[in-house]
Amino acid sequence: MHYRTLGRTGFSVSEVGLGGEYLEGKSAEQVCAVVHAAMEGGVNILDCFMSEPNVRTNLGRALQGRRDKMYIQGHFRSVWENGQYGRTMDVQLVQQHFEDLLRRMQTDYIDIGMIHMIDNPAEYEALFQGPVMEYVQRLRQSGVIRAIGVSCHNPVTALRAVQTGLVDVLLFSINPAYDVLHEDAERPRTVDKTLFDHMERLNGINRVREALYRCCEERGVGITVMKSLAAGALLHAETSPFGQAMTVQQCMHYALTRPGVASVLVGMETVEQVADCLRYETMSEEELDYSFLFSQAPKFSMDGRCMYCNHCLPCPQHINIAQVQKYLDMALLDGVSPTLQGHYDSLEQKAGDCIACGICETQCPFSVSIVERMQKAAALFER
After folding, report:
1. What average pLDDT is seen over the chain?
2. CA dist., res. 295 & res. 244, Å (int)
3. Which intervals hold domain 4Fe-4S ferredoxin-type (predicted)?
4. Degrees (nearest 5) of the Cα angle 299, 304, 309?
């Protein structure tokens, strides 16, 4: 395993990191097996944004006797209410759920206190002019957290956060589809070929994202990466906006070649997936090369594609929106198999329970037409 310094924190983190999202709903035994396999392979950074109590408890069990071998990136603002994930700026709720994280993870400190999902101007203003940041800074001063981070999907908001000087770590969504401008977008006047050396045949690089990566590098803000696989969309030609499939390792390599990036946090739920991600460390440059992806400069967009992150929750009908969306995409790709129908039927709340209130769409960072897709899912699975 190769290690990189995470910006000005000085933390030496593994290039391959563990995203804990898909461990939610898994048994304690499976969580332990995945965490232990990752650590035995040299992984030493774990992201836990999940507020669901059981997954926090299981991760704490997995780290018993190993806590000092793992950097934990734990999130503020992620809450569990009425049996669902949600987000809040209520500082009392933020404190309550952060203290719950400490208890369940069986630790008295968190290495990276990550402020969860600051994606728009309203959230930015509420954070940097409100009590949540004051609370986080007090924890930093007392040593309960060792660094302050912000997670974000929006490069404009992320850049503003980095420029405050208060942020040590940025958790940001990076993959080639997000980094390239749409054909009808304004073309940048110059493209830094050393930054995106394989993209000169495309329409250009999103200028704000380029500026963000450079700003992080210059200011010593370490970047940890989410969404490197675009929820698996880049792994299949049928679902990739490029029309060509990448490997897991090529997606990881793309992110790790961006300025400022220290670790790619890949969601893993099986020991086999851990082993596959660890193969990155032994692959040749030829195997990791992703330049083929940009050979035809296709028109594409990732807007409207579900990333299965459930940031659209809470749902007043208690629908597991991400799971419904995943089953819908699987059905549209390969049809409704008996096994897939069985998985869908096991959901407590289904797409047909959607009341089209639209709350989820206002919270989705990827502009997914959730209500319309719920109707499609109900038509496919509930006939």
Report:
1. 90
2. 10
3. 345-373
4. 125
* Mean pLDDT in residue range 161-179: 94
Which domains does the chain show, CATH number per domain?
3-294 (3.20.20.100), 321-381 (no CATH)
Supply the pTM of this predicted model: 0.82
Q: Return the number of other C-beta atoms located less than 10 Å from residue 128's C-beta.
A: 17
Q: What is the per-residue pLDDT across 222-247, written as a single tens digit (0 to 9) for each?
A: 999 999 998 888 999 888 878 889 99
pLDDT digits 0-9 by tens, 212-221: 999 999 999 9
Instruction: Write down how long the chain is.
Output: 383
104 near 56, Cβ under 8 Å? yes
Q: What is the 3-state secondary structure (H, E, C) of the chain?
A: CCEEECHHHCCEEECEEEECHHHCCCCHHHHHHHHHHHHHCCCCEEEECCCCHHHHHHHHHHCCCCHHHCEEEEEECEEEECCEEEECCCHHHHHHHHHHHHHHCCCCCEEEEEECCCCCHHHHHHHHCCHHHHHHHHHHHHCCEEEEEEEECCHHHHHHHHHCCCCCEEEEECCHHHHECCCCCCCCCCCCCCCCCCCCCCCCECHHHHHHHHHHHHHCCEEEEECCCHHHHHHCCCCCCCCCCCCHHHHHHHHHCCCCEEEEEEECCCHHHHHHHHHHHHCCHHHHCCHHHHCCCCCCCCCCCCCCCCCCCCCCCCCCHHHHHHHHHHHHHHCCCHHHHHHHHCCCCCHHHCCCCCHHHHHCCCCCCHHHHHHHHHHHHCC
Token pair belonging to 207: 């200028």
Count CA atoms closer than 13 A to 230's CA, side-chain side: 26
From the CB of residue 129, how many other CB atoms can be counted at a distance below 10 Å?
10
Lowest-confidence region among 111-120, 197-206, 223-232, 284-293 = 197-206
Strand 16-19 relative to strand 261-267, pairing: parallel
Pairing of β 78-81 and β 145-152: unpaired
